[in-house]
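Entry 14. Two folds queued back to back today. First construct below, sequence then structure tokens.
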Amino acid sequence: MASIFSAEFWSNIFTSDLAIDLGTASVLIHTKQAGRIVVYEPSIVAINTQTGDVEAVGDEAKQLLGRTPQGVKTVRPMKDGMIFEVDAAEKMLAMFIQKARPNKGLARTRIVVSVPPRAHQVARRAVKQVCYDAKAGEVFLVDQTMVAAIGAGLSINEKRGCMIVDVGGGTTDVAVISYNGKVFSDSITIAGDEMDEAIIKFIREKYNVLISETSAERVKWELGSAFPSDHIRTMEVSGRDQFEGLPKTLTLNDSEIREALSEPINAIIDLVRKALNETPPQLAADLIERGICITGGGSKIQGLDERLRKETHLPCYRAEDPQTAVVRGTAMLLEDIPFLRRIQILD
């Protein structure tokens, strides 16, 4: 008797293809089987210093920041858009893949991992090896900037230029893309993490108060801005007086945090200006029509799109759900394997 189920049906049942955004701040995993993002957690791993075993990853590991008991350390394996500690990154990624895969023993799985443009060959090979250790049948590495553009809905296959500014956790990557290739590409190690550090430094120098990374991140999202607004925003933040050693609570406003963020924001603006200066005239005309698309978690800083619009005199818009653009673009490549093979990064 002929089967009532098609070959495509059985392929979908026995395949759990994964798209992974290996970011400095977060790891996102989209599964073809679920049709959605199933892992969205911080790029942090807690490791037992005596045994080398993983104690926690992601959200659980983040809760241990500044609270780790003796014998356990928290590690951020990604730094400045690259794998900083290969061994910790391997362990973290392996745990996340294990979380994401409902069918753990299937060798047919394809895994596509987006990696930063600056990722070195050793790091890329380590990522591939982790995926093969997780029983992947085939592993592809793709450029984060390219897939961010795809996830943001840009038509990268046209013979017209489009510009993407991806403000992540460790790097800001800018690219001008035309006909499935980069006409211009550059990165700086200034992004979300650098903004947090700028806030910590500002509060320490102005108020002599030390605050945690977690508090700085909260201040960034609640008060951070790149362009003045009509409404004054304030919030309280607690830390430790660096002279008296006692807890202290401050009331901050958006104006002073905008001052704190001026240096990293200006660096991002300068990188965009550099890209425009080095873009061929015929593609520059396309950008006047198509504008600048910003993606990444750091793009959610209030007024960044407006500031870029003012500085460049070009249309500028934030992609829908910008922090997931990379993983969505990576997942879309699983629907077009021939195209994926064309744009993959080869060692």
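Second construct, same run, same settings:
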Amino acid sequence: MTTTPFGRSAPLTILAGLFLDGTLGEPRRDVHLTTDGGVISAVADGASPARGATVLDLRDYTVLPGLINMHTHTVLPGDGTPFMDWMALPDELLLLRAHTNALVSLHAGVTTLRDCGGKGQLMFRLRDAIRAGIVAGPRLVLCGRPLTITGGHCHPFGGEADGVEGMRLATRGLIKEGADFIKIMASGGGTPGTYPYRPSYEVEELRAVITEGQKVGKPASCHCTAGEAVTRALDAGVDHIEHCYFHGPNAEWREDPALAQRVADAGVYVTATMQTMEDWMLAERARTGVVPDQDRHHETLTSMRLLHERGVRLVAGNDAGWRHTGFDDFSREIELLVEIGLSPLEAIHAATGRAAAACRLSGVIGTLEVGCAADFLVVKGDPTQDLTALRTPTMVVQAGGVVVDRR
């Protein structure tokens, strides 16, 4: 059910029974939060509403920041349709699919999507439509087209670029179009004909992109499903790594403590994307009746556990849109973070405050502090004790406006 009982610009005071601010601070009780013009204007202990504000009594609930899904491909269906088959469809259908996916995410409590690759300028156009109020949707943090070698992973998106100068020019073009960050396919991936266990770019090519982004404050992120790709990304000074698998060139899975420690020492963020492997494994079991010989999900969990133990800054992103991963159950990725050793509070932080920091949006989204966007969830129960409370939010509020109300 979608409702809009409060105007986004009208003052609103929320009385929260339990309050999580998106940092690693302990939960607080009986907090009141006031929004004005879509921004948080006050946060204080005690249940004293602002004078003249509409009051929303949520003292039987937990209030926490809206979730940030740090890795999606919003133009993709997430229903198992082969990638190349889907990319043969007209752009208009891809754009409509992207809008539907974005709305599904928002209604599930994801108020910000960090899209890690779409076709052409489609995601920029969707963001334009949301900002203009033409359609509803979550906040979008975009890279546009991911950069990939000729014929590389996700090349149908239109981001093929080669050589130092080609990479530099492609990066400048994406920045001109409005990219918030630059995504580089530093290894192959699930696109047919690519090589997921081998690096794609030379260090100098990666460095050209990263340097161009740094000039204007745009972080760069590398898709890495091979140990050598991780090494090259670190050599080039990358800000963020997607997946961060340590496979060898012949698809052999490796546990590489030294490389994991190097990732930690570099201070880069890593998006774990564990859910997509679990969803793939479950889909294969349903289709064939057996678990695949190579349990990629177990390998991914083991790798992420190693990274966490070394102190790597993990953020929550589930690769929604890819293979069998949809947009309605991002909370599962947060639960998987607990399975690899994070506390529930740390896992929530990975999808809120830390995720915002990785996007360079601290103080804008991800935490419930004065001056931040009034994006928050209302859930039954205490998610720091039981993360399943996040599966079906009671309410979703974006920019001070109630998007979903299931009370």
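Quick look at the second one. The longest strand covers residues 54-65. Residues 1-7 have pLDDT under 50 and may be disordered.
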